[in-house]
Amino acid sequence: MMKKTLTALTLSLGLVLSFSSYAKNNVVVVATGGTIAGAGASSTNSATYTAAKVPVDDLLNAVPQIKDLANVRGVQALQVASESITDKELLSLARQVNDLVKKPDVNGVVITHGTDTLEETAFFLNLVVHTDKPIVLVGSMRPSTALSADGPLNLYSAVALAADDSAKGKGTFILMNDSIFAARDVSKTINLHTNAFVSQWGALGTLIEGKSYWFRQSVKRFNNRSEFNIENIKGDALPLVQIVYGSGNMLPDAYTAYAKAGAKAIIHAGTGNGSVAKNIVPTLNQLQQQGVQIIRSSRVPQGFVLRNAEQPDDKYGWVVAHDLNPQKAKLLAALALTKTKDAKEIQRMFWEY
Ligand code: DGL
After folding, report:
1. Which residue, 55, 110, 158, 328, has fewest beta-carbon neighbours within 10 Å?
2. Where does a domain end: 196, 225, 254?
């Protein structure tokens, strides 16, 4: 009798466990390095540490509570500080994420990443990975070894978001400091504190204690609605685009040097509303005539560059980056150049993405 009871109990426990595992979504955590995988000499080193040290399984084991949210497995795609990610790594990561979201048994993807170029990788995936499954990029401002490290809770929240069916079809996200940001809008605005990431248009929502609360959605094109697709991008380099930072007393040499290095477009990170010093305009027009697309962005973090305001863009054949900051304009310009060199078409893309 006892044996039958034990067998029945074991079977039912197995069923409960398998059902609960079955009831949870499957999330893959793709690790690339950064501070979230960083380690400092002591717990009081919140800003002095080495990034990209802790492997993905240790990151996951440090937050056992994520097992309550989803069936999670880790993949170590890279182990680098994000400022060192080049086109090669970016394209490879996009292909890996694209392969994962195509798998029927993957419901969402989390990417742990350095915060320095987190917004760039997120924006790129937002533009080239066709899926409605949640892709959530997450980092931390303090290393895992620091007092009040922000990585573990950021990772927990990122897994919660990636496992949340309500996050489907809303774009690629950055989850930092309880906020759910649209990849295209958010940027790192503070280089030392945990509330580093901000969007001038606000977060899409917030995630608290594993539950997401939504307050708006993006009207821009992304993921399934994008005309760009990683599956159509060959090789390990994008068309070369570079950025020149505007200030007083500008020289034209940086622009001509980049053109000589093979840049197919140059992002002018102008003062104010994408202003261009009058001694620089002839050089930019000469480069435009030579086939290097000039794109006016701004070094100012908020607002957007108004077409034909500071400069006669229609007359010069220049493009304005609208509200995209220089580093995001650089990525969209590179993708645009995989399809066209026509300034009007490129400008359309800057209005739509
Ligand atoms: N080296 C920086 C990076 O990997 C560290 C910053 C961070 O991850 O928060 O982006």
Report:
1. 55
2. 225
Instruction: Tell me how far apart the alpha carbons of residues 282 and 257 are, in angstroms, rounded to a whole number.
Output: 15
Asked if the structure places residue 168 within a domain, the reply is yes
Q: What CA–CA distance (Å, rounded) separates 267 from 334? A: 11
Given ligand 1 and candidates 32, 36, 79, 83, which is best to mutate, with the most ligand atoms within 8 Å of its CB? 83
Is the domain of 212 the same as that of 118?
yes
Tell me the average pLDDT across 275-300: 98
Query: Ligand 1 test: best mutation among 115, 137, 155, most atoms within 8 Å of CB?
Result: 115
Average pLDDT for residues 304-310, to the nearest whole number? 97
Q: What is the mean pLDDT of the chain?
A: 94
- The answer to whether the CB of 199 falls within 8 A of the CB of 154 is no
Mean pLDDT of the 43-55 span: 83
Q: Do 244 and 221 fall within a single domain?
A: no
Query: Residue 109: beta bridge partners?
Result: 28, 135
* Amino acid type, 267: I
How high is the pLDDT of residue 51? 79
Residue 75 binned pLDDT confidence (cut-offs 50, 70, 90)? very high
CA angle 219, 223, 227 (to 5 degrees): 90
Q: What pLDDT is stored for residue 197 in this prediction?
A: 98
Domain co-membership, 215 together with 256: no
Can 115 be counted among the known catalytic residues? yes
Q: Is residue 8 included in any domain, yes or no?
A: no
Range of the structural domain that residue 219 is part of:
22-225
